[in-house]
Design goal:
Elements: H1 2-54, H2 59-80, H3 82-95, E1 98-102, E2 104-105, E3 108-109, H4 112-123, E4 130-133, H5 138-148, E5 155-158, E6 161-165, H6 166-175, H7 177-182
Helix pairs in contact: 2-3, 2-5, 4-6
């Protein structure tokens, strides 16, 4: 009986120790799992931080900086060929009543300001209109920037003189002065569609 009692006590002790070890092992597994989860959660946060650093500079600010650099280079290009470029473009302005220096062409503007100016001039029926693409060569942009002291195209010239930049044209369009001083009614439709813009035919 004593031996049986001793074996029973030993069995209970072994069972208790085993249970304790299993509990400790389970706790260790849970800690490892929690650590793993924390690591997995930390990775997206790090990715977000990297993403924020990558876009720290606004795309609009970057675009504006690129345009300013383009203007600076264009002015230098114009200055290095000033007589040839100025003589040619001065003659173009003198030979045409309305000349628009813009990015692109009226049928394919390459900037929102130039596109908006074309729309305003079209609605006011400012015709005939001669356009000059300032992006065709850096010296052309340098020429009109130097002539007007306005660093952002488009620039409108009327009767040989600088008339307005984008802000000035928008202001004159809003008040009706653009249509009154430069526009015409002769090209607009008559009859049922009187006063409306003409419909193009091809």
């Amino acid at each position: 009986p004593k031996r049986h009692h001793a074996l029973s006590e030993l069995a209970r002790e072994l069972h208790t120790n085993t249970h304790c070890r299993m509990m400790l092992a389970g706790a260790a597994v849970r800690r490892a799992a929690m650590t793993g989860t924390g690591a997995r959660l930390a990775r997206p946060a790090a990715a977000v931080a990297l993403s924020q650093r990558a876009f720290a500079v606004s795309p609009l600010e970057t675009t504006a900086k690129l345009y300013e650099d383009l203007v600076d280079k264009s002015i230098k290009e114009f200055q290095s060929n000033q007589k040839t470029v100025a003589d040619d473009l001065d003659a173009e302005i003198a030979a045409n009543k309305v000349v628009l220096f813009m990015e692109g062409t009226p049928d394919a503007p390459k900037s929102e300001p130039s596109q908006n100016v074309v729309k305003m001039l079209t609605e006011a029926q400012v015709v005939p209109l001669t356009s000059v693409d300032v992006l065709a060569h850096p010296a052309i942009l340098g020429y009109t920037v130097s002539k007007t002291s306005k660093r952002r195209a488009p620039h409108l010239y009327v009767n040989g003189s600088f008339y307005a930049d984008y802000d000035g044209i928008l202001s004159k369009y809003t008040t009706g002065e653009l249509a009154k001083s430069l526009g015409t009614q002769a090209t607009k439709s008559t009859g049922v569609f009187g006063g409306e813009l003409p419909i193009a035919t091809y």
